[in-house]
C-alpha cells in the first residue's frame, strides 16, 4: 500500500469516527434541550463539526483508489450517521418564524423553545440514538482493528508520511499503537477543543448579550420617554383642537341670525325651461311658437285679427271691447263663426300677427344681449347689475344664476374653483333682513363655513372677535373689516350674488352718502378675487350710482319665458277652441311688458273667471281691463265691484293678492308653478 493510500485510509477512519462522536454529543445536547426548554449553543457546534468531517471524508474518497471491504463499511457508517444528523438539523430549520430568527441556532431555539419538546420525539429519536450506539460499538470491536490495527499503527509511526498527518490523526494513530480502541480516547482531543471553543463562545455570547441588553434598555427608556412626550403632545394637541373648534363654532354662531336664509328659501326655483337665455347665444322662442293668428294670415292671405276685431292696444280698449261685444250680440256669432272672421285690428296703430309674435317671443331683444352675462362671467370686470321692473322676476333670476351649473362653467374661465355666496334683501322682513349689517353678517358666515383654519387666522388678525357671542355683538365697522379680510385672505375666489338692493332703505342711503369706491360694493369689487352680481329695480339712485356698470334689463328679455308660463297655465283651462286659447295667450303676453307677477295674477284671474263664464269676449274684456301697473292692478282688484264684486270668494282672492304686495308670500290657492316675483 502506498503512502498516499495509507494517509487516505487514516483520514477516512478519523473523519467517520468524528462524525459518530459529534453526532452522539449532538443527541445528548438535544435531549437536554427537550427536557429543559432552554437553548444550548453546543448543539450548533456539534452539528457543524459533524458536517465538516463528513465533507472531508467525501473529499478524501475522490483522491483514493479502490476501497477495501473494511473501508467501504466505514464509509457506509459515515453516510448513515450523516443522514441521521441531517434529519435532526431539518427540524431546527422549521423553527425559523421570521427573518431575525433565521440567523443561527440560538435564535431558532430561543424563538421556539416552547415547541422544541414536540420535535423529533418518540420512536424516531430512539432509533437514531440506537444507531449511533451501534456505530460506536462497531468501531470499538472490529472496525478500528480492521482498518488500522495496533501493529499497523506502530509501523506508521516510523514512516515519513506520519508527519503529514493532522494533529488529530497523529494523536489517533499514537493511541491505537498504544492499544486503545475507545472512540472517546481516540478523538477526545478534538472533542475537548470543541468543548473549550463552545465554552469560550458561550462566554463571549453572554458578554455580548449583556452589552446588547444594556443598549436595548437604554433605547427602550429613551423611546419610552419619547413616547410619553408624544402622547402628552398629542393630548395637548387634542385639547388645543377642541379649543379651536369651540372658538370656531362660537364665531359662526355670532355671525348668524335666525332669518338669514328666509328670503332665499322663499324664492322658488324658476319655471322649467325659463331664463335659459342668460347663458344662451341665441334668441329663444321665435321658432317654437308660431302663433295661430299668424297662420290665419298666411292661410287667408290677409291681415290677422282677433275673433271679434279687438284692439290689443291698452288705450281705448274699453270702448272697442264694448262696441264689438254689441256687434257680436247683434250678429249672433258663435265660436266657429268667430274663428273664420278676418276683421282688421283697430286702434291708434294697426298690428299684425307677426308684430305680436315678436312682442311675445323676444320683446325686440338683439341676440347680442343674451351673451352679455356670460361674457362678464369670463372677464376681469367686477360688477354686474340685473335690473328690472317690479315683479319682473329678478329674485328668481338671481337664484337661477346661483344654482345653475352653467355659472360655474363660464366663471371658471375667469378663476377656477369659485365659491358662490348669496344674500337676499327683503323689505317686508325683519330689520336684519333689510339692513346692511345683515348683508355683511350673511356673507362672512358663508365665507367661513368649513374654513376653521381661515377662522383661526382671522382671530389672530382681529383678536377682539373672540368676545363675539351673537350678531348683536358686532358693529358695522367690525363686520365690514372681517368680511374684507376673509375674502382677501381666502385661497379661493368668490362670486357674490346680492338680490334686492332696493329692498333696503339703509343700503340706498349708504350709496348716496359715499363715493362709489368707498361703498361696500366698491370695496368688495376692489379685491382681486371677487366678482359681484346684484339686482334691483331701476330707481334713480341705482341708475345714477351704477352708471357704466354692465347690466341686464330683465323685463326686456322675458317675453318668451312669460309666454311659456302662461301657455302652460292656460292649458288647464280647457278652451272650447284652440284659437280662443291662442288669442288670450297672445294678449296676455303682449300686455305683460316683461312683468312676470302681472302675468301670474292675470292668468289666475282668467282661470278663475273661466270657471264662472267661459265666453271668450268676457275673458278678453277682463284682460283688457287689467291695469298694467302692479300697484294699480292690486288697487283695481281690491276695489272692483263689477261682476265679481258680490262674490265672497272673489273678494277673498283680491285680499290674497293684496297680501302678496305687502308680504310677497305664495298664494294658498295657486299651483306650485307660481313663484314669488321681485
UniProtKB/TrEMBL annotation:
Residues 304-350 are annotated as: Disordered. InterPro entries: NPHP3-like_N, P-loop_NTPase. The keyword Repeat applies. Gene3D superfamilies: P-loop containing nucleotide triphosphate hydrolases (3.40.50.300). Residues 373-537 form the Nephrocystin 3-like N-terminal domain. It holds the Pfam family NPHP3_N. Keywords: Repeat. The keyword Repeat applies. Residues 312-350 have a biased composition (Basic and acidic residues). PANTHER family: AMELOGENIN (PTHR10039), NACHT DOMAIN-CONTAINING PROTEIN (PTHR10039:SF5). This is Nephrocystin 3-like N-terminal domain-containing protein.
Amino acid at each position: 500500500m502506498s503512502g498516499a493510500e495509507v494517509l487516505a485510509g487514516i483520514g477516512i477512519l478519523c473523519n467517520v469516527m468524528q462524525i459518530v462522536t459529534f453526532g452522539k454529543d449532538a443527541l445528548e445536547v438535544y435531549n437536554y434541550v427537550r427536557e429543559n426548554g432552554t437553548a444550548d449553543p453546543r448543539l450548533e457546534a456539534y452539528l457543524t463539526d459533524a458536517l465538516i468531517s463528513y465533507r472531508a471524508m467525501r473529499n478524501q474518497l475522490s483522491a483514493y483508489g479502490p476501497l477495501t471491504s473494511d473501508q467501504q463499511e466505514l464509509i457506509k457508517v459515515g453516510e448513515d450517521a450523516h443522514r441521521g444528523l441531517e434529519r435532526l438539523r431539518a427540524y431546527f430549520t422549521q423553527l425559523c418564524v421570521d427573518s431575525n430568527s433565521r440567523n443561527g441556532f440560538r435564535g431558532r431555539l430561543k424563538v421556539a423553545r416552547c415547541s422544541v419538546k414536540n420535535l423529533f420525539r418518540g420512536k424516531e429519536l430512539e432509533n437514531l440514538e440506537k444507531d449511533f450506539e451501534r456505530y460506536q460499538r462497531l468501531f470499538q470491536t472490529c472496525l478500528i482493528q480492521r482498518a488500522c490495527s495496533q501493529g499497523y499503527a506502530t509501523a506508521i509511526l516510523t514512516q515519513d508520511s506520519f508527519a503529514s498527518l493532522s494533529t488529530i490523526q497523529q494523536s489517533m494513530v499514537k493511541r491505537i499503537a498504544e492499544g486503545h480502541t475507545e472512540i472517546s480516547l481516540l478523538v477526545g482531543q478534538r472533542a475537548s477543543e470543541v468543548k473549550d471553543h463552545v465554552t469560550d463562545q458561550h462566554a463571549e455570547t453572554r458578554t455580548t448579550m449583556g452589552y446588547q441588553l444594556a443598549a436595548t434598555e437604554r433605547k427602550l427608556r429613551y423611546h419610552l420617554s419619547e413616547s410619553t412626550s408624544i402622547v402628552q403632545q398629542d393630548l395637548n394637541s387634542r385639547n388645543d383642537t377642541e379649543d379651536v373648534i369651540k372658538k370656531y363654532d362660537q364665531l359662526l354662531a355670532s355671525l348668524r341670525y335666525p332669518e338669514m336664509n328666509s328670503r332665499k328659501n322663499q324664492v322658488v326655483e324658476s319655471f322649467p325651461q325659463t331664463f335659459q337665455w342668460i347663458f344662451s347665444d341665441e334668441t329663444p322662442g321665435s321658432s317654437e311658437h308660431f302663433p295661430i293668428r299668424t297662420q290665419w294670415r298666411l292661410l287667408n292671405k290677409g291681415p290677422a285679427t282677433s275673433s271679434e276685431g279687438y284692439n290689443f292696444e291698452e288705450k281705448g280698449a274699453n270702448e272697442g271691447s264694448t262696441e264689438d261685444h254689441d256687434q257680436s250680440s247683434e250678429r249672433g256669432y258663435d265660436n266657429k263663426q268667430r274663428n273664420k272672421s278676418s276683421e282688421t285690428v283697430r286702434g291708434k296703430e294697426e298690428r299684425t300677427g307677426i308684430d305680436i309674435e315678436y312682442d311675445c317671443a323676444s320683446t325686440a331683444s338683439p341676440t347680442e344681449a343674451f351673451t352679455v352675462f356670460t361674457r362678464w362671467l369670463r372677464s376681469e370686470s367686477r360688477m354686474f347689475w340685473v335690473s328690472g321692473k317690479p315683479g319682473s322676476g329678478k329674485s328668481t333670476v338671481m337664484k337661477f344664476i346661483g344654482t345653475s351649473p352653467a355659472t360655474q362653467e363660464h366663471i371658471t374661465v375667469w378663476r377656477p374653483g369659485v365659491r358662490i355666496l348669496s344674500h337676499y334683501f327683503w323689505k317686508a322682513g325683519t330689520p336684519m333682513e333689510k339692513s346692511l349689517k345683515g348683508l355683511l353678517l350673511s356673507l362672512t358666515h358663508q365665507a367661513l363655513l368649513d374654513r376653521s383654519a381661515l377662522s383661526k387666522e382671522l382671530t389672530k388678525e382681529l383678536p377682539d372677535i373672540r368676545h363675539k357671542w351673537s350678531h348683536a355683538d358686532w358693529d358695522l365697522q367690525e363686520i365690514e373689516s372681517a368680511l374684507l379680510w376673509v375674502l382677501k385672505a381666502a385661497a379661493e375666489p368668490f362670486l357674490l350674488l346680492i338680490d334686492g338692493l332696493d329692498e333696503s332703505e339703509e343700503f340706498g342711503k349708504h350709496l348716496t352718502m359715499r363715493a362709489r369706491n368707498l361703498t361696500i360694493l366698491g370695496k368688495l369689487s376692489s379685491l382681486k378675487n371677487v366678482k359681484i352680481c346684484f339686482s334691483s329695480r331701476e330707481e334713480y339712485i341705482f341708475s345714477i350710482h351704477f352708471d357704466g356698470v354692465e347690466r341686464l334689463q330683465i323685463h326686456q328679455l322675458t317675453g318668451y319665458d312669460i309666454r311659456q308660463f302662461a301657455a302652460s297655465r292656460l292649458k288647464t283651462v280647457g278652451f272650447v277652441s284652440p284659437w280662443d286659447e291662442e288669442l288670450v295667450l297672445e294678449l296676455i303676453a303682449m300686455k305683460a311688458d316683461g312683468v312676470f307677477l302681472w302675468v301670474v295674477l292675470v292668468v289666475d284671474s282668467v282661470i278663475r273667471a273661466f270657471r264662472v263664464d267661459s265666453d271668450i269676449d268676457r275673458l278678453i274684456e277682463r284682460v283688457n281691463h287689467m291695469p298694467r301697473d302692479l300697484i294699480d292692478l292690486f288697487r283695481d282688484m281690491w276695489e272692483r265691484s263689477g261682476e265679481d264684486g258680490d262674490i265672497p270668494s272673489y273678494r277673498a282672492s283680491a285680499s290674497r293678492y293684496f297680501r302678496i304686495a305687502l308680504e310677497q308670500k305664495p298664494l294658498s290657492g295657486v299651483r306650485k308653478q307660481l313663484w314669488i316675483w321681485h
